[in-house]
Write a structure and sequence with these properties.
Number of helices: 12
CATH topology: TIM Barrel
Number of domains: 1
Bound molecules: phosphoenolpyruvate
Largest sheet: 8 strands, parallel, barrel
Distance between the termini: 19 Å
Strand order of the largest sheet: 1-2-3-4-5-6-7-8
CATH class: Alpha Beta
Mean pLDDT: 95
CATH architecture: Alpha-Beta Barrel
CATH superfamily: Aldolase class I
């Protein structure tokens, strides 16, 4: 099969940081900088409208960090995919390890959230990855297999192709420990193999698989140069415009 050219997609995840004014000035500043990759920012719910407004006319995608698995109804405190769409958001993260860990989200819930996002025309960004214990027990691939198969259950190849997957080994998130290039490349190739066997080779060759976990300006280029790495999900280093734009520029210095 001919080699498929996949764009590099770099997304910042602000987690529970920043208010409206800061989000607005960050996005305005980012829109003025030069970058060649596709760029997204997953911002707090409260910043979505302001960030989307500031990003208008630029190539910056604004997204949420979570979504309800329900369409609407008596779910106090929840935010639906339709509400996200209303703010100008175009994507949302689901299944981040912090939500799996602290809010006990499982693959069935993640799968339902993905379905709500697709119904509303938003692009899901699904995080997967093994914990340190699973990594040490040699269960990484088993975990990735279950998270992909269950997270994408009931979806068509066309729907799966449009999802962004972020491989984020839990032991590398916010710890300063980045997975080695060999580990990352092997995990990404394995994910593509799982997707190929369940949803077809074409879907596997087109789907974007990002790496996330302690990405910084000084390791971004090496990660982006890996052939199966189609971008990055960046937490801590996306909070300052300077460090985030350095990562975006690293894309130009990577080999691919
Ligand atoms: C993340 O939260 O998705 C993440 C990768 O965080 P960090 O870059 O800080 O490790």
């Amino acid at each position: 099969m001919a080699h498929v050219h996949r764009p590099k997609v770099i997304v910042g995840n602000w987690k529970m940081h920043k208010g409206i004014a800061e989000a607005r000035s960050f996005v305005t500043g980012l829109a003025l900088s030069h970058f060649t990759s596709l760029v997204g920012l997953a911002v707090p719910y409260t910043c979505l409208s302001a960030a989307a407004e500031a990003a208008r006319g630029s190539a910056i995608m604004i997204g949420a960090q979570n979504v309800s698995d329900n369409e609407d109804g008596p779910f106090t405190g929840e935010i639906s995919s339709k509400m996200l769409k209303d703010t100008g958001a175009t994507f949302a993260i689901v299944g981040h390890s912090e939500r799996r860990q602290h809010f006990h989200e499982d693959d069935t819930l993640v799968n339902n959230k993905i379905k709500r996002l697709i119904e509303s025309g938003l692009r899901p960004l699904m995080c997967i990855g093994e914990t340190l214990e699973q990594h040490q027990d040699g269960k990484s691939h088993q975990v990735l297999h279950a998270q992909l198969i269950n997270g994408f259950r009931g979806l068509t190849p066309g729907q799966v192709e449009h999802i962004i997957v972020a491989y984020e080994p839990v032991w590398a998130i916010g710890t300063g420990k980045t997975a080695s290039p060999e580990t990352v490349e092997a995990a990404h190739a394995y994910c593509r193999k799982v997707i190929a066997s369940a949803w077809g080779k074409d879907t596997a060759e087109h789907i974007i698989i990002q790496y996330g976990g302690s990405v910084k300006a000084d390791n971004a280029a090496a990660l982006l140069a890996l052939s199966d790495v189609d971008g990055l999900l960046v937490g801590g280093a996306s909070l300052a415009l300077e460090s985030f734009t350095k990562i975006l520029h690293a894309q130009e210095h990577s080999k691919s």
